[in-house]
Amino acid sequence: MWATGGSGTPEGSEEASSARTGNEGPGTRALMEEVVDHRNLERAAKRVRQNRGSPGIDGMTVEELPRWMREQWPGMREQLLAGSYEPKPVRRVQIPKRGGGERELGIPTVGDRVIQQAILQVLQPRLDPTFSDHSYGFRPGRSAHDAVSQMRDYVTEGRVWVVDIDLEKFFDRVNHDMLMGRLAKRLEDRRLLRTLRRYLSAGVMVNGVKVEQRRGTPQGGPLSPLLANVYLDEVDKELERRGHAFVRYADDLRVLVRSKRAGERVMGALIKRFAKLRLRVNESKSTVARVYERPFLGFDLWVNKKGETKIGVASKSMERMKERVRELTNKRRGRRVEQVVWQLQRYLQGWWRYFGLTESRRGLRDVEGWTKNATDRRGRGRVGLFVRESALAQARATVAACIGPLSVHSAPARPGPSTTWRTGTSSAA
DNA sequence: CTATCCAATAC
RNA sequence: AUUGUAUUGGAUAG
Ligand SMILES: Nc1ncnc2c1ncn2[C@H]1C[C@H](O)[C@@H](COP(=O)(O)OP(=O)(O)OP(=O)(O)O)O1
Ligand SMILES: [Mg+2]
């Protein structure tokens, strides 16, 4: 089933299934006690409050949390310990997706977010260490950078073909029963399992009416990312067992192979494997291709003159950055110039912080220099002193020179790395 | 070393 | 308005 008729490939073959060892770690029976422990709960409430998220279906804001904790918590605690707690439905919010289309968020009540967070804090330390080393998304201590670097290393080993898979509406299609089955193999506390099940079937509020959801884990629930990793863990382990070189970030899976043929075989197998999980591979976003043709987490790979594989900024990400810079500089809606520059610096610094992983040094170095230039101004040196109307234009010109043409309307494109706009270095009043 | 606040990116 | 997880960085106060 797993291995379709393919011969001579470097990957080994092995039978599936290995059955997890009962439960993870000691004391999985009294997990709910850990969840409702007041220290754990305080930490959870703090996190939810600091996220500054908007209310769920009951309209309670995060500012009202302390009051809620005092008045509603004792009752909730008892219900949780009895395994009889019923979460509220989530609030449906549509937001635009990066690649077009809409993302359906499911926003739980602030109170439910606290409880889910409290559960996460108990489950994450137990479950996460059991996950595959090849899985990077939503996991503490593992970054997108780690995933990209790992993929680059696989490519350096000569695996230049990639099976690129993205799942369709991933969170929305997670099967409740199958997920619960996975969880039941790892956790013994039946009250906790019951509440997790109830969170999954809490449903959505659609103009005053609760609509049952028979599948999916809400995009917006604190627990959902962990549950998603639990759901796909078995696939990770199977790929591992077969000795595949792969990296997974959430629902973005890359298997690196040495030939197109091997890739197509793996792709076919994975489509079937995901179908077994009631998940569908996104046909438009998934393919077998040369790694250099497929961006990953905002980066792409390329080969330098010496034949080394290097990490670069994917062109989509580059275009998005330019667009944002244009948007921040072009027309300023009643903002002062210094405000515009400050915002631009802030954005570019954050951008570079992520994309600084890139090893392509064509002009991007200068973005860094430029950004630092504008930013590294110790003390509370005010931007106001050195910024004048021309600073804005120069900033745009510099970026344009580093990154490419930014706009049609004003691009002198005569940057000069050593332009004089840094003149007001000294402290200011 | 602790705490609060802000920002960027990935999904 | 827009939720969540994770990573990385900055500022400020002790
Ligand atoms: N802003 C977000 N808030 C909460 N969860 C998110 C967010 N972005 C992504 N996720 C989670 C839920 C998604 O199901 C999962 C994978 O992301 P993504 O592939 O971009 O969307 P998707 O799988 O839901 O739809 P698509 O069919 O377009 O791939 O990551
Ligand atoms: Mg997807």
Automatic annotation (TrEMBL):
> Its Enzyme Commission number?
2.7.7.49
What name is this protein filed under?
RNA-directed DNA polymerase
Q: What PROSITE patterns does the annotation carry? A: RT_POL (PS50878)
Q: Which family does the record assign? A: Belongs to the bacterial reverse transcriptase family.
The UniProt keyword set, sorted, is: Antiviral defense, Coiled coil, Endonuclease, Hydrolase, Magnesium, Metal-binding, Nuclease, Nucleotidyltransferase, RNA-directed DNA polymerase, Transferase
Enumerate the residue ranges of region (Disordered): 1-31, 408-429
Q: Which GO terms describe its molecular function?
A: endonuclease activity; metal ion binding; RNA binding; RNA-directed DNA polymerase activity
Give an example GO biological process: defense response to virus
Q: Which residues form a coiled coil?
A: 311-338
